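quick one, 619 residues, struct below
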Amino acid sequence: MKSRSPLVNRIAIVVGAVVVTALVSMATTLAVSKSIEGNATAINLAGALRMGAFQLLAQSAGPAVPESGEDSISQMLDQYETRLADASITKAIPESHDHPLGAQYQAILESWQTTLRPALQEHDEGTPVSEAMLASTQQYVDNVDQLVNMLEQRTEARIDLLHLIQIISLAFSILIIVALFIDLKNRILRPLRKLVSIAIAVGDQDFSRKANLSGSDELAQLGQAFDQMTSELALTYYELEERARLKTEELERSHAALQLLHSASRDLFAKHDLCNGAIPMLQELEQLLGIGPIRLYLHDKESSEPIQAITTASRERPFYCRDHHCNACLVTPEAYDELPVESNDGRRLLLPIRTPGQLLGTLEVWYPAEEGLSKTSRRLLETLSDQLATAIFLERQITEEQQQTLAEERTVIARELHDSLAQSLSYLKMQVARLRRLNIDGEQQKTHEAILDELSTGLNSAYRQLRELLATFRLKLDTPDLATALQKTIEEFSERLGKPVGLQYNLPPQTLSPNEEIHTLQIVREGLANAVKHADATDITVDVLFESPQVRVRIRDNGKGLPGSDQPVNHYGLIIMQDRARTLGGKVEVSNRDEGGVEVTLGFVPKSRNLIPTEASNA
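---
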């Protein structure tokens, strides 16, 4: 079964090696010590055999001892032989006859039994020892000495072997311990130091340190885990740092945008002009949030499509532009092509501009598709739409109040004229009629009739002008815009003419002020009235066109034209039209057409547009 712990395996191997070494050393030491057990006794006994041999020889050569008897030498020989065959000696002698020590021992036994013992037994006690017997004894003793030397050498060899085994065991143990320390240093201590240094570096937000440990043990796996952890921590830390940086930048942009919205809200409500008040603020907001272009569309009850009122980026001057000195929304075609629009990988956000119960318009915001739009930016844009809704609502309310105030003032003036001047003129006309009924004779008759005719003509003209003024002051724009009022006027005069009157109208919404709309409508009505009453026309067309920055009105008919191809003199209707045109800052021209009929032309620059046509800029 494969171990799950390489580090434990290595430690187990080292400990096992040490244990095996110790066991082998102890076993061999025990075996060697066991093998030399009793060798000292055998050496001592063998050494005593030499002395015993000389004692036996001396006993044989010496005088007989009476007390001992005849068997004394025999007893000594038996005792000596018993010592020669002692178990301590035979135990130290290997049983194998091929072993030198065993052969030497057998030689000693054979020399004893065949030579020395018989010689001692046959020698007469008390007689001198022969040279042969002495030589035999010496040879026997030499053999015993050799046996003792061999026993000593064998014992010393075993002791040397024991020393060698101990030295080898010690050396092997030292090698194992050294290898263990080296392995501990390389595989444990050094990796641990690296891991500790990495942990300290991570605490100091330094994620560049790596362990780079190879192998499959626990510390290597721990080092690999540390490396992966530091990499993930570095990535997470950098992501958090980047997110914090982006969040900080977003908060800074939001703070700047809020300041911008706060300052721009005052301009929106102070200037009462969406274009001048909103475009600079919207362009700064685009730079802060990285969005754009931004367009504002207003909803009109009389129009099925929303009408563009503001844009922050345009190639050409918008039709609703009121300040031809201003080029704030004009950009080059190259810059426009780089903006995030639908054809250039952009996404669109539509925000309603509404008040409770009323939809006033739509705010269209383009932003890069790859970057998206943050929640903070969206909330800021929603706040902007609320501010625009308030500004537009107040502007419309002010316009309605102005129209209502103007209508009330005109009604008051008309009532005062009717109650004072109209009654006075009527009274004077009745008095002139009374004078005509008087019969005045004599030389002053012609003079009186001329004076009465002049008074009647003057009164009729004054009364006619007064009626026109009353009609003007009583005229109201009951419709929501000029286009609808003109359409109703065209329908009225079409019934009077018996044929349809043509109308061409392209004025942008809110081009004219309420007062300018009233005067324009009245001039159109006067021109239509003249064409229907005096021209005997069968075809009448009305054009109300926007030729930026001018408004041009044309009333054309195919009637009999003006007598003498010139403008009529003392035509009170034309005088009133010219007065209205001067009020508008323009001019009315009446002329005959080459193809027949009369053309009445009105041209003026609305007060909301501060340039005349010759100063128009094409920037």
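The first helix runs from residue 6 to 35.
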